[in-house]
Amino acid sequence: xxxxxxxxxxxxxxxxxxxxxxxxxxxxxxxxxxxxxxxxxxxxxxxxxxxxxxxxxxxxxxxxxxxxxxxxxxxxxxxxxxxxxxxxxxxxxxxxxxxxxxxxxxxxxxxxxxxxxxxxxxxxxxxxxxxxxxxxxxxxxxxxxxxxxxxxxxxxxxxxxxxxxxxxxxxxxxxxxxxxxxxxxxxxxxxxxxxxxxxxxxxxxxxxxxxxxxxxxxxxxxxxxxxxxxxxxxxxxxxxxxxxxxxxxxxxxxxxxxxxxxxxxxxxxxxxxxxxxxxxxxxxxxxxxxxxxxxxxxxxxxxxxxxxxxxxxxxxxxxxxxxxxxxxxxxxxxxxxxxxxxxxxxxxxxxxxxxxxxxxxxxxxxxxxxxxxxxxxxxxxxxxxxxxxxxxxxxxxxxxxxxxxxxxxxxxxxxxxxxxxxxxxxxxxxxxxxxxxxxxxxxxxxxxxxxxxxxxxxxxxxxxxxxxxxxxxxxxxxxxxxxxxxxxxxxxxxxxxxxxxxxxxxx
Length: 507
What we know:
It comes from Microbacterium caowuchunii. Its main location: cytoplasm. One of its GO terms (biological process) is lysyl-tRNA aminoacylation. The protein is of the alpha+beta class. The protein folds into two domains: 15-154, CATH 2.40.50.140; 182-331 and 392-500, Bira Bifunctional Protein, Domain 2 (BirA Bifunctional Protein, domain 2). The protein has 16 helices and 18 strands. It has helices spanning 15-35, 54-60, 108-111, 113-122, 169-174, 176-182, 184-206, 247-255, 293-312, 336-344, 354-364, 374-385, 439-454, 465-471, 485-493, 497-500, and strands at residues 69-85, 89-95, 101-107, 128-137, 143-154, 210-211, 217-218, 230-233, 238-242, 260-268, 280-289, 316-318, 324-326, 332-335, 394-400, 416-424, 427-434, 478-484. The strands form four sheets. Strands 6-10-11-18-17-16-15-14 form an eight-stranded mixed β-sheet, with helices on both faces. A five-stranded mixed beta barrel has the order 1-2-3-5-4. Helix 7 (184-206) packs across helix 15 and helix 11 runs parallel beside helix 12 (374-385).
């Protein structure tokens, strides 16, 4: 079946074109209303005698030979994405939600002159149409319905974009519903995300984790160094914060005896938006009693590799641009300080003075971080010298103590904490810890954070007395991790963050 020149919308439609098409389609809607005789009224039927789905028919009759008839009658519905009308025979491609298509053949011999003319007069690209008839293969070998009965289930009042012209990224993001109609990759990404979430839950279940939910509205933000969104509760006459991380509540659950917990939910951070950051994003956090950051790294690797297999059938994932990226095997674990020293050609340790780091950063062209500390300089220098050369998935281990206020000090290296960041595709995908469980030390860390906040650091944590009270009832040793679901999709699909989020925030 070939497409006639006038069967698709032009690549670029003017506002006047759209206005004219809408007027014509509205007139067709009025005709549908006038023709209805049932008590329900309106333009469209409430229900339809659907017997099959388009994907099911395609699977069932995959081996049908060209010109073969089945003698089986099926009723299906789909969106018209192609239409070609001739004198005695009309063709249309009906598309289901997964992108599967079937051809509808409306012939004079099968439906009669009046019905054929109504099809020509009323059916437009974008309409949802029900057809019933025999399942056949056309002379060209295309799976088809030889229509004996049909109805418009819903009329599109606005025209579809050209199905053969790529939408711009901005159009895809702002009008995701159109993106899902016209682009296979958009639908595949949604299904990949669902497969990833199902795989994560399955892996956690295999390790006896419990999925829980924690508040998104909080009286005090915490669990991460980030700037929160602030709102007001009329009921409580109180200032509230949108959650920046679920960590402090998940740890309360562990104190309560839920030894292995995880949550997949939304976080909100009032910060910049770019190719790897979104103000609203999906986050996975998990905490496991009686393990450490090494055990939680093993679990994280398993979670990601299982998710890759769920989407791609292999740990070798194929990105949207065709690149094959290997997520298999055991991933490297490197020291932040050792890798920085090797990359920059000078020894940098947890004891390197702040002034020396400041001078070296200036010499290297690294900007001074806001509210500079030893740890912030080390992390900025590491990103400058090391991050760009990481290609394979890599756990970067052992971070400065002053940038990780909720993490346990390293058991053998003074001045660092047992924290790792996992880098995949050149960006941070996940972070993990041996969690700090001593409420006395935690209070001291919170006090230091409060001092930073008093000096104007909007990302610094506040003292959380309720969390400290929970810790004082005895928190078991544990490992914890956090991972962005959107970024996990980026690692598996090779897409940018706005493509992995179904409806991203845009101005």
